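Translate sequence into structure tokens.
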Amino acid sequence: MDWRRISMSDRRLTVRKTYKLFIGGAFPRSESGRSYVVTGPEGDFLANASRASRKDARDAVSAARKAFAGWSGATAHGRGQIMYRIAEMLEGRRHQFITELGAAGTPPAAATAEVDAAIDLWVWYAGWADKIASILGSANPVAGPYFNLSTTEPTGVVAVIAPSGPLLALVSVIAPVIVSGNTCVVVAPEEAPLPSITLAEVLATSDLPGGVVNILTGSRSELAPWLASHMDVNALDLAGAPAELTVACERAAAGNLKRVLRPAATDWTTDPGTGRMAAFMETKTVWHPTGV
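Result follows.
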């Protein structure tokens, strides 16, 4: 049989893609072997996505913890350069993201605006990498012969329950977490996971060290409580968690006093400010005698 004749005919087979997880800079299948079908607004097939298990979530946390020392110890300038590189890579795959958003039901003009805004947001956060510590830190006046200096440092491993919005919302919850030196485990929105995994392909081909961002696809209700109760997760962003899941995660997070950012109505197209960056940074205050 002549494969060239088949490939040029209308009978050519559709190559159906199965998206994998993104853990430690690699793309493993779920250890459970499970996957689910992702469909468009009319029920048409878009892709298969891996359904992550609790074991996959533990592996992702382990990868994030392993990457934390190197990423938090990097210079702020270096982190900013890497985040700018991510924006460059996104720009190079701009058409692919627009096409994927269109397939999911976003009108062409809105899809284009969405992708362009997401690229711009990466650049915006890249610029904050070597400035946020100066904004949040301070030299404090004290009644005595001492210097009193407050400086910031990253919280640690952050579990992020991504919101259901497409690419811009996803960038809006990942970028502010990693810009200050945190690492993260992201649970992609189950109903629309493709922008998350395509973003993972961008991250994997940028200069971002493996494990800084880990992305899981699957059920929020299955994965979120386990991440919330994991003792090596330091903070929790519940941006995409529904009300009942939020309550369950907050209770589970109390086990090791995780910092929890509760979901709130957010317009991702507005100026993000510094709030989400500050939410996952700790302040350390040092006293030092001024001398004679």
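Note: The chain has a mean pLDDT of 91.
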